Every structure is written in C-alpha cells, then in structure tokens.
C-alpha cells in the first residue's frame, strides 16, 4: 500500500509542482521567433443557416523587443448578441518578470480582474493577488 501511495505521489504531485511555473507569456513558450511582434488568431465555425463559415472570435497578441507579451485583445462574436472586446496589458519589472496583468477593456465584464505577481529573491512567484 505504501508503494502504491509513493507511486501516485511521484506521478501526480511532483510533475504538477515542476511544471506549474512554466511561463506562458513569451514568444518562446509559443514556439515563435523572437522577431514576431504580433499574432492574430481567428476562430471560425460552420453555420447551417447561412451555409458557410462564420467568424466567431479574434485574438490579437502583441509582444515587446524582449519577446514578452505586452497586450492582448479578444473579441467574441456571439450568435445572439454582440459582445465588447476584452483588452489586457502585461507589465514587467527590470528583471523581465511579469508583475501585473491589467484589464483595460472599455466595458469591464463581471469576472474581469487585475492580477499582481510577487517574486522571491530566486525569481519564483510567491504571491498572486487578484484585484477586482
């Protein structure tokens, strides 16, 4: 029984702690070249009523010279109502660590928050504050 518990611990807990700090706000995390400044992603679905493909959402990401994400814009085109775009800014400190994600949308949504990160001397995230 103890061997089973140890095996489950090794397979489930350790990988989640090792990979939970992976940075997803850089060009490298998206396997893109350092000179990329902007990416645009369009999502289409097939609409039976119109007999063709319809644009459902658009996502635009902008990067700085260091390859860090600095701005995102997301627009969802719903079937029943037009929604307002979501715009976020990403702020970094002198060590190129993400310190804040700021929602600057014209119309703030019900669940939109600003996120602030705190780091220790080793550069690991120690605190993540959600600010409404």
Provide a descriptive summary of the structure in words:
It is a single chain. By secondary structure, the chain is mainly beta. The chain has one domain (2-131). It has one helix and seven strands. It has one helix spanning 2-19; strands at 38-47, 52-63, 69-76, 86-92, 98-103, 114-119, 125-131. It is extended and about 55 Å long. It starts with a helix and ends with a strand. Residues 14-22 have low confidence and may be disordered.
How many helices? 1
Tally of domains? 1
Mean pLDDT: 81
How are the strands of the biggest sheet laid out side by side?
A: 1-2-3-4-5-6-7
Order of helices and strands: HEEEEEEE
Secondary-structure-derived class: mainly beta
- General form: extended
Number of strands: 7
- Rg, Cα atoms, Å: 19 Å
Span of the ends, CA to CA: 46 Å
| Low-confidence region ranges | 14-22
Helix content: 10-25%
Give the biggest sheet. Answer: 7 strands, antiparallel
Fraction in beta strands = 35-45%
Protein name: YD repeat-containing protein
Organism: Polaribacter batillariae
List the helices and strands and how they pair.
Elements: H1 2-19, E1 38-47, E2 52-63, E3 69-76, E4 86-92, E5 98-103, E6 114-119, E7 125-131
Antiparallel strand pairs: 1-2, 2-3, 3-4, 4-5, 5-6, 6-7
Features:
132 residues; seven-stranded antiparallel β-sheet; 1 helix; 7 strands; 42% strand; extended
Question: Summarize this, please?
Answer:
This is YD repeat-containing protein. The protein has 1 helix and 7 strands.
